[in-house]
What does this fold into?
Amino acid sequence: MNSIFLDTLKGKPHSRPPVWFMRQAGRVLPSYLKLKEEHSFWHMMRDPQLAADVTLLPINDLGVDAAILFSDILVIPYAMGMGLDFTEKGPVFSKPLKDVANPSANLNPDANKLDYIYNAIDAIVEKRPDNIPLIGFCGGPLTVLCYMIQGLSTNHAFPDAINFIYSNKKESKKIIDALTELSIEYLNKQVDHKIDAFQLFETHAGLIPTDLYNELFMPSVKKMAAAARARKIPFIFFPKGLSTGLKYLTPEDCDFVSIDWQIEISEARKIVHSEIGLQGNVDPRLLYASQDVIENTLQKYIDFGSENKDWIFNLGHGFMPGIPYENAQFLTNWVKNTNWNR
Ligand code: CP3
It folds into this structure.
């Protein structure tokens, strides 16, 4: 495939960085909001043709260089038997693990519950333009565990989940092992159905100290990275809030690491292992500003991008509700039309 995104992941330089956005297939696109008037998120995600169409919307509407599967990280606990609903206030589990005695014994992983996702991947591969690779994904072990224990995300500190992790380390490990096993099966099936790259979304990595993250959760990340590597699929790790813990990542852990906005991209380059490429890290909230302000703020990326060819342009987290569509288009066009002095 002739893809600037895959070339960059594999170390082949281009005259500009590739660009895609976390949460690109959703709320920022008028075409998506229109579909949302007729269908629920759950319905769109479970209908393979609709999921494929939504996955490809930002290719046409924004002009990004890669597609990301339209699904959610919480399909894994759902496939473990946890009742899940997507409500106005975000995802809600009917029986969070904080309310269950002996939770690991009550999980029933059933990979067949994810079959509709592979059908969606087949439909995407069939419909996509030739040069557009598909990114598969799943949630990082800490982030998914937080949702499973807490049951919802109205408090982003996930207090009961963190309490549980500290007070039930052994039980936490058992759940993490079960999550890891199903996630690896899920990754392998996504590869069987021809995804081109894989991203692990560890959105809540910053909730706990790095040493605890490294002890309890990094073994799981390493196993997933090894599974991707065995299939020759580039592996991007997004540990939001990991901060200076980024310095512990090794090339075995990921090919690229996605950086949030709390650390400057040039600073991240200094502390991340030189063989690991970077992705990121524009603050998505910058897109609430005027295009003049956006353009001025982006200037610092030109020097960085001119020196660093192992870099994928992206946000530090996903698009936010209410970001003007025109500004998302402006950002994509800016990346494509800037002279990167390469
Ligand atoms: O990036 C993409 O466009 C691909 C699809 C995707 C979704 N969720 C679709 C979605 C991806 C990669 C995710 C990952 C995800 N889901 C994460 C990790 C990344 C991140 O944003 O932090 C997390 C923590 C979740 C859990 C989740 N799902 C939350 C908290 C919510 C509700 C709040 C929100 O962000 O909208 C969801 C629902 C969800 N997942 C929607 C979409 C498009 C919104 C559904 C709607 O339109 O109502």
Notes: The chain has a mean pLDDT of 97. Residues 22-27, 36, 41, 68, 70-74, 86, 90-91, 137, 143, 153, 201, 203, 318 surround coproporphyrinogen III (CB under 6 Å). The longest helix spans residues 169-192.
